Amino acid sequence: MAKQKDDGSYDGSQIQVLEGLDPVRKRPGMYIGSTGYDGVHHLIKEIADNSIDEAIAGFGTRVDVRILEDGGLEVTDDGRGIPVDKHPKTGLSTLETVLTVLHAGGKFGGGGYKVSSGLHGVGSSVVNALSARMIAEVVKNGDLYRVEFERGKTSVPFKKVGKTERPQGTRITFYPDPEIFKETVSFDYKWVVSYLRHQAYLTKGLYATVYDQRTKERQAFYFEGGIKSYVKNLNIGKEVLSDEIFYVERQVEDSMIEVALQYNDSYVETVRPFANNVLTPDGGTHLIGFRAALTRVINDYARKSGLLKEKEENLSGDDIREGLTAVILVKLPDPQFEGQTKNKLGNPEVRRYVEQVMNEYFAYFLDENPNVAKKAVGKALLAARARKAARAARDNVIRKGVLDGASLPGKLADCSSKNPAECELYIVEGDSAGGSAKSGRDSRTQAILPLRGKVLNTERARLDRMLGNNEIVSLIKGMGVGIGDQFDIGGLRYDRIIIMTDADVDGSHIATLLMTFFFRYMREVVEGGHIYLAKPPLFLLKGQSNKRWYAYSDEERDAIMQQLVEERKARGTDINPSDPPIKQAGLSDIQRYKGLGEMDATQLWDTTMNPENRVLVQVKVEDAERADAIFTKLMGDEVSLRKSFIQTRAKDVSLEELDV
Asked: Which residues are CB-contacts of 280 (< 8 A; sequence separation ≥ 6)?
């Protein structure tokens, strides 16, 4: 982005005070969303965003984050430094005002920032209010100023403490308050790495570092190519149609428009829209403008070059965006986000700005790169043909409205309840296990859909091929949400979709294939927290008088056996150390389950389906971009990437177990 420096002045008169800080500690969720893991890490973002805003404005070049051994986190930048002069309204130093008064900031049109991600200006003061301790240090012309707080109140008064070698900058150190964050106050190094990597992509020339004092891990990021480098990273593991990446950066009136895009041979669209470095997952006017221009320019080129015949209908937007990877970044002085979560950009003028830039420069790019253009149009033409071929098949499998019994897949054993909130669908590997599940289930709330063999790998399949696969069709019909442009999460017939497969390599593969399908074609079902993995036991330990214990891992089996040995000793039973462990524990047999089919209906209910006993693992997508990359590596065509991924992570694989 072009530097936005003016005279560089930044003093107390540019900081506006809107209201007090008292409500924050009483209702923290109103300001940071939650007081769990997400809330703790939102604090980092609020502080670091201010440092990044300095870089966006052209006054800083770096941001350094340190996770401290004593539980704190430190953010340092080389920006102008928060003003330290006396604020004309509060009578306090401007530094104290910014950190103790809600809505006191330089982002309300007072001249401090032309572009910023902190729209509401509440960040620093909210972090202070929710921290057991905060230390703020500012350097101005080599002079170091410092103030300390406890739970939002000044504990060590503001003062000038001396000279430093740094000419300017701000350092904020804070400790999340355990009185507020009862779940955790520990920082996740991987979260910080992901956050800083994205900010470095979105801010060309920004040098960002993170260092974890607890583990001595460190990483640094610098991307001279900005979002062009970002697109290249998003396409790792995918076969790109051309090495050429379209990139444009242009100022339109008072806004900066940046777009980078490249096509790959996948069947999914990957577009990341940002406004002032804030991801807007629900899109908005910048995304609308981008899509409209992309569709228009590709169709115009296709007709002009003769690739699209006169009598053929225009390519649809969906056809053109198949295999597209793009990053859209707009920077504007007054972003109007919809809601506190900033999920969608609402500025109407931005649509016109983006369309104007794309219409001119993307059209020029296609003319200058005919090989790239022909490949992109050719891929869209193939997508259009596949769409037409799938239309007839789709009409047969997509349920419109609420499914009646006649349209359900024949092998689905549905539940009697019609209330989706209490219903769950078990997707079961194999007819044998399916039979046991049907016999042992609670037929009022539990539906069973047995699958035969391996499911189609939907990572490498278009919709027309998917609709020719009986297992996929049964799944679509049974769930009731449709697929493609007729997908509707409101039609979901079951609150929980539970994947129940054998506890072996084949079972894990089937589960991964199913999760790939859900992630690629029913993302809202995953993001809504509806997908679960059942965890069947690995061992049945048989004792005297028909006593039984189930173990879900080798470690749990050993722990049960050790407990039985201790109980026998406590009862005065003589234990011979030379006896086999099974005899020492007083067991008659230990059965290792090879698959779900080895369990009868009662055992399957007791261990894997009874809500009082079962263990379910909820599938979450906290970082869609990282999940996308993992599915590409595991299920795509690049064998070397998959091999490397498995070799480096095989020993560290773990799942968060949730008792549901």
From this structure: 273, 274, 286, 287, 337, 342, 343, 344, 345
**Same domain for 417 and 467?**
yes
Question: Where is average pLDDT lowest: 130-144, 234-248, 451-465?
Answer: 451-465
Residue 589 lies in a domain: no
What burial class does residue 19 get, using C-beta atoms within 10 Å of its C-beta: 0-12 exposed, 13-18 middle, 19+ buried?
A: exposed
Residue 616 covered by a domain = no
Question: Which of 74, 137, 502, 628 is an active site residue?
Answer: 502
- CA atoms of 443 and 574, how far apart (whole Å): 48
Who's near 610: CB < 8 A, 6+ residues apart? none
pTM for this one?
0.71
CA dihedral for 410, 416, 420, 422, sign (positive or negative): negative
Establish whether 502 is a catalytic residue.
yes
> Which tokens is 46 given?
């609020």
70 is catalytic: no
* Concatenated DSSP letters of 186-216: ---HHHHHHHHHHHHHHSTT-EEEEEETTTT
**What is the C-alpha to C-alpha distance for residues 307 and 526, in angstroms, rounded to an integer?**
39
Half-sphere exposure (CA, 13 Å, Cβ side) for 507?
21
User: Which residue out of 54, 429, 459, 628 is catalytically annotated?
Assistant: 429
Quick count: other Cβ atoms within 10 Å of Cβ 314? 16
Active-site annotation holder among 504, 579, 600, 622: 504
In a shared domain, residues 239 and 183:
no
pLDDT digit string (tens) for 492-507? 999 999 999 887 778 8
The burial of 615, by beta-carbon neighbours within 10 Å (0-12 exposed, 13-18 middle, 19 or more buried), is given as middle
Count: domains in the chain: 3
Residue found by looking up tokens 């809601």 in the block: 339
Catalytic position from the list 506, 579, 600, 657: 506
Nearest to 380 by CA among 314, 285, 478, 436: 314
Tokens describing residue 473:
């069709």
- What are 652's two structure tokens? 């560290």
574-611 pLDDT tens trace: 999 899 999 999 899 999 988 888 888 999 999 999 99
Q: Rounded distance, CA 477 to CA 74, Å?
A: 52
CA-CA distance, 123 to 498, in Å (whole number)? 40
**CB-CB neighbours of 266 under 10 Å:** 23
> pLDDT tens for residues 406-433?
456 778 999 999 999 999 999 998 888 8
The domain in which residue 481 lies consists of 400-535
pLDDT at 510: 85
Question: Is residue 520 situated within a structural domain?
Answer: yes
7 is catalytic: no
Check whether residue 158 and residue 86 sit in a common domain.
Answer: yes
Q: Which of 153, 186, 221 is the last residue of a domain?
A: 221
Helices (H), 424-553: 431-440, 463-466, 470-479, 505-521, 523-527
In 227-269, DSSP assigns E strands to 246-252, 255-263
What is the Cα–Cα distance from 274 to 280, expressed in whole angstroms? 6
Backbone torsions φ then ψ of 384, nearest 5 degrees: -65, -40
The whole-number pLDDT of residue 132 equals 96
Q: What 3-state DSSP class applies to 360?
A: helix
Name the residue with tokens 């209201």: 19
Please tell me the distance from the alpha carbon of residue 342 to that of residue 1, in angstroms, as a whole number: 22
Q: Is residue 354 part of a domain?
A: yes
Average pLDDT of the residues in 115-134: 76
**Is the pLDDT assigned to residue 109 strictly greater than 90?**
no
pLDDT digits (tens, 9 = 90+) for 336-388: 988 655 689 999 999 999 999 999 999 999 999 999 999 999 999 998 888 77
The answer to whether residues 376 and 413 belong to one domain is no
